[in-house]
Amino acid sequence: MQKTFLFLALLFSSSFLSAQISMVIGDGGFLFKEGSDSICFYQRLPKSLDGKYSRNNYIHPLYGLDGTVLTEDFPDDHLHHRGIFWSWHQILIDGQRVGDPWMLENFKQNVKNVQFEQLREGDATFQTEVYWMSPLYKNGKEAYLKENTTIHFFLKEKNLRRIDFEITLSALADKLQIGGSEDEKGYGGFSIRLKLPEDVAFRCEADLVTPDVTAVNVGACVDISGSMGKNNSYSGVAVLCDETNPGFPQPWILRKEKSMQNVVYPGKTPVNLLVGEPLVLKYSILIHDKEISKRAILKEGKKQ
Fold first, then answer.
1. What percent of the chain has pLDDT over 70?
2. CATH fold group of domain 21-301
3. Is the peptide bond before 46 cis (omega within 30 degrees of 0)?
4. HSE on the CB side for 60, CA within 13 Å?
5. Rg for the chain, CA atoms, rounded
6. The dihedral sign for the CA sequence 122, 112, 169, 58
7. How do beta strands 207-208 and 52-55 pair?
8. How confident is the model at residue 19, as a pLDDT?
9. Which residue in 9, 13, 12 sits closest to 23, CA to CA?
10. Closest CA to 53 of 116, 101, 8, 123
11. Pairing mode, if any, of strands 271-273 and 176-179?
12. 135-179, pLDDT tens digit by residue?
């Protein structure tokens, strides 16, 4: 019998740790907490809206430090957007399109195994093994790609909580390619759909960043902040691109309203995923409720 869920937890005495990241099994997925505070929810099983836009293998809700829900799922303007997700428009095998994971068309993800481990420092890791499938490939009976993702949850430090993502994509089919949207925007890859207040601001290495229709080159990180907390209090999420990623620093699609924020890779021109040569993408998010300097953000980025 195939094992579909693996849970590992290292137990320590209460005298050893004053805080610990924990995982709670919920409806369709897993809730991650630090003490009594919710961090985020991972959606393991597919969910849909009236049978449409079925999606899984993503994070929603993501919670702010004050417990406010920061992300959106099934937003009216883009029903396919979903919390924190990593997805692409173009999936090609031998030059033929077999699905559009971004739009959730001809796309299925089978989350076969997950593993949760508490670490000695109080942090925790969550690992997934996910198989990508399409009715246009082998009649949907075989996967064309295996995804292994590790999410590292760090204990909160003062006004900052960090979450790391390491996404490994391994081709199971020959002549497999992935790519972003085929227009000049080229969006695709690691994305986050946030609730955006009117005073949202984008800052980081280029100080104040002005979003554009197409991707902007502003460096390794972008902080998205404004009146996102309870009672319109200040809160924010910084997104960091790891220097080991291909094309570093990757460009950004940024939007002030009704859309997601995306670290663009590879753009509109597809890249080859060769069997036996996995593609590894690493990103971090920093959740905060005080203004954070770009120096502090970049310092956090060096920890990965």
1. 89
2. Beta-galactosidase; Chain A, domain 5 (2.70.98)
3. no
4. 23
5. 19
6. negative
7. unpaired
8. 83
9. 9
10. 101
11. antiparallel
12. 999 999 999 999 999 999 999 998 999 999 999 999 999 999 999
Give the lowest-confidence range in 53-67, 198-212, 226-240. Answer: 198-212
Query: What ranges in the chain are assigned the alpha helix state H?
Result: 294-301
Distances (CA, A) of 167 to 58, 65, 74, 87, 218: 12, 25, 23, 11, 23
pLDDT at residue 233 greater than cutoff 60: yes
- CA distances from residue 111 to 121, 130, 153, 282 in whole angstroms, order as listed: 28, 4, 20, 20
The residues facing 39 across adjacent strands are none
Query: Residue 262: what pLDDT?
Result: 98
Confidence tier at 242 by pLDDT (50, 70, 90): very high
Rounded CA separation 14/89 (Å): 47
- Pick left, alpha or beta for residue 32 (phi over 0 → left; psi -120 to 50 → alpha; otherwise beta): beta
Q: Is the pLDDT of residue 237 over 80?
A: yes
Structural element, H or E, at residue 49: strand 47-49
CA 106 to chain centre: 21
Look at residue 295 and tell me whether its pLDDT is greater than 70.
no
pLDDT above 60 (res 292): yes
232 phi, psi to nearest 5 deg? 65, 25
User: 121 pLDDT band (50/70/90 cuts)?
Assistant: confident
Q: Cα–Cα distance between 248 and 46 in angstroms, integer?
A: 32
Plot region of 301 (φ>0 → left; ψ -120 to 50 → alpha; else → beta): alpha
DSSP letters for 148-167: EEEEEEPPPBTTEEEEEEEE
User: Distance of CA 271 to CAs 71, 99, 133, 186, Å?
Assistant: 29, 16, 19, 13
Which residue matches tokens 């890779």? 265
